[in-house]
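GNAT family N-acetyltransferase
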Amino acid sequence: MDASKPVAQDSPGYTVSSDPARIDAKAAHAFLSRSYWAQSIPYETVERALSNSLCIGAFHEGTQVGLARLVTDRATFAYLADVYVLEEHRGRGVSKMMMQAMRDHPELQGLRRMLLATRDAHGLYAQFGFKPLMAPDRMMEINQPDIYTRGGRASAG
């Protein structure tokens, strides 16, 4: 994927980029720390997560207004996380542009499985091929949704 490419014609001034140097950790933290899925997440945790992931940022006139983060081995698996668009930039196709950039990214071709969790954006993700789990009885998780608000790290058991 090009380091930066413009979005659809109906979204003037918007670009997306997977260039790690363009991803603004402070901007991501400002949104994520108030999101329903990562409320109170420490800045250092966001910074570490971004540096260990493939990120697609959305930019309006050079300022980061959205993010999609993929935890991936770039060969067989990816987990899509921390997708957001700032409220004042929603409804302009920005999230769709990030999802299309993710689907087109050369390092994400040929993956066997891609997962995500969402509370309210099923329609968006369905447009890009996501479906309910084929075999939910095979999937397991350790889920600690309050880990940042209780100030701890993941427990071993």
